[in-house]
Each structure stands twice: as C-alpha cells, then as structure tokens.
Write a structure and sequence with these properties.
Elements (H helix, E strand, L loop, with lengths): L1 E7 L13 E6 L2 E5 L5 H8 L6 E5 L5 H4 L2 H10 L6 E5 L3 H10 L9 E5 L5 E4 L2 E7 L7 E7 L8 H6 L6 H7 L4 E3 L2 E3 L13 E4 L7 H6 L5 E5 L7 H7 L4 H11 L4 E4 L10 H8 L5 E3 L5 E3 L7
Parallel strand pairs: 3-4, 4-5, 5-6, 12-13, 13-14, 14-15
Antiparallel strand pairs: 1-2, 1-16, 2-3, 7-8, 8-9, 9-12, 10-11
Length: 306
C-alpha cells in the first residue's frame, strides 16, 4: 500500500477549509510527513492516520507555514508515550532547528529527535525505498523530495515453470527469489521463468518553488507529482516575485516529465471560494490533474500489478 493523505493544502495562510502545508505518505504502514504546518496534529487526528508509526518528517524549507506544526506534534506524541527516535530531515541548519526544539523548557520529551541536514542530491536509503533531496528555487534555501521504491522482482511465469517440470509449491518461491533449483537432474535458472525486474512507484513533492529543471528531471515518469500550484496565470508576475508556480506552469512541467498524475497544492487564499481557474488552466495543458483538498487521499498503484 502506498497512500498519500493531504493534511494541509493552503498557501501561506490557512483558510476555513484549508490548513497549512502538510502531506503524509503511508508506505506499507510506515508514516512520513512532508512539511508540517500549524495544526497538523489535529489534521492527523481528523484523518485518523495515527502517530505511532511516524518515522520521519521531511521539511522543504523554513517558512512558518511549513514548520510551525512540529512542536505541537512532538509534544502530543510524547504525551502518548512515544519512545522511538523521530528523524527530521531538511535543508542546512535543520540540526540547529531540532536542537532548539529539544531545548525548549516547556515540555520534556520521552524520545529523541535527530536532525539531519540534506543537500540537493543527497539520498536517504531505507528498506525497500529511498528519499532523494532535490534542489528547488524559492526565496530561502529549499528542497523538494522524491520517494522512489526499489525495483521489484520480475513477473513469475507459472506455466513456463510447469513446462520445465517444476511442480507448484516451494520451488516456485525459490525461483522467484532468484535461486536456481534442480528438478529431475536439470538445473532451472530464475531467468528462465522470471521476467525482467519492474520499477517501483515514485512520488515527487516539490515544496514551494518556481518551476525548475531539477524537479522536472526528478519527476520523469513519476506516478504522482505533488507540485506548488499557488496561483493562476493572470498572477504570473506575483508568482515570479513570490517564487511560486502557476497552475499552468506546473501542468507544463508534468506534461514534459510524463507523470501519471499531477496534484496541485499550496493553493492561495484568493481561490478560497473557487479553484476552477486553477483547474481549467492546468487541464488545458495536462489532463490528469487534481487540485488538492484537505483530507483528500490518493492510493498510488503499481503501473504493472502483475
């Protein structure tokens, strides 16, 4: 299971229907937060995501609407009895940010927090997947992130295996794991019954940014691109000045990168009553686009489920 839960989708300011930035990824039960705006802990409660399985927070940059939820979330997890270390990743100085959080006197934590500074190109390797830090273009040092699963074993061909005299059962599993087996004096190699390896899934989160080559390249053939879509194209000058992206620009990037699904987030409060201008201009360029809403969930399937 790879599920994305949008806990906060607003631009710089919350609205009555949108919280500030926070995107949760649930990968086979492990939870990861990408940004943590004010009130994220309440959004997690509303979405019933749980907190115990939260392993990491990935900060895109140090603007308030992306980090102010961290102190409250940490305190809540401590009250709930958390003892496992929480890792917080982000741009340069995140370790100092974590040191300050840990030193705050108004709460005593029952668990450790580890701050890990990342530079563009750094890779956080995990069991079965990796998180790639991507340099982005904003008004302060900023990162985007690509979650990339390891390649999967190729598809097993049971009919071919039986043709080679292999009975269904444990030998099938051994072959699919890459082990050669011997049947009736003949050695059968995995490549005889297992197809080529297949890509895992890929999610890219841009954070706040102008359109940039680094996000484009990281998003090639991504299953899901979550991109800054703060403004409509009639606000192009303000998008450039504030270093955000228009819906049209994000759609152009998604089209060039050949992503499967584009979700626009960090929606300006000027569209509180109507996101149709954003959706219409994005769809004119790239059809499979969604405007993120708080509490929206997306399941990311494999391209080849076999």
């Amino acid at each position: 299971m790879l599920r994305v839960i949008f806990l906060g989708t607003a631009g710089s300011l919350p609205t009555t229907s949108r919280n500030t930035s926070a995107v949760m990824v649930n990968l086979e039960g492990e939870l990861m937060l990408f940004d943590c705006g004010e009130g994220t802990q309440q959004q997690m409660m509303r979405a019933k995501t749980g907190m115990k399985a939260l392993s990491s927070i990935f900060i895109s940059h140090f603007h308030a609407d992306h980090i102010l939820g961290i102190p409250g979330l940490i305190q809540t997890m401590s009250f709930h009895g958390r003892t496992e270390t929480l890792k917080i990743y982000g741009p340069h100085w995140v370790h100092e940010f974590v040191r300050i959080l840990s030193a705050l006197g108004y709460y005593k934590l029952r668990f450790d927090i580890e701050g890990v500074d990342l530079e563009p190109g750094d890779i956080v390797k995990r069991d079965g997947y990796s998180i790639h830090a991507i340099g982005t273009v904003h008004s302060v040092p900023s990162l985007g992130y690509a979650l990339i699963e390891d390649r999967r074993t190729g598809k097993f061909d049971p009919d071919k295996a039986m043709e080679l005299g292999i009975p269904p059962g444990p030998l099938f599993s051994r072959l699919h794991r890459g082990e050669a087996v011997e049947v009736n004096g003949r050695t059968v190699l995995p490549e005889e019954v297992v197809g080529p390896s297949r890509p895992g899934r890929k999610i890219v989160y841009s954070g706040d940014t102008r359109p940039c080559r680094s996000i484009l390249e990281a998003s090639r053939d991504a299953d899901l691109l979550i991109h800054d879509g703060t403004l409509a194209k009639d606000q192009q000058e303000w998008a450039i000045e504030s270093m955000h992206t228009t819906a049209e620009e994000a759609a152009q990037l998604a089209k060039e990168a050949n992503v499967r699904h584009l979700v626009l987030t960090h929606i300006s409060s000027r569209y509180s009553d109507d996101v149709k201008p954003l959706l219409d201009e994005a769809k004119a360029v790239f059809e499979n686009v969604t405007i993120a809403e708080d509490m929206m969930e997306i399941e990311v399937p494999y391209r080849n489920k076999g």
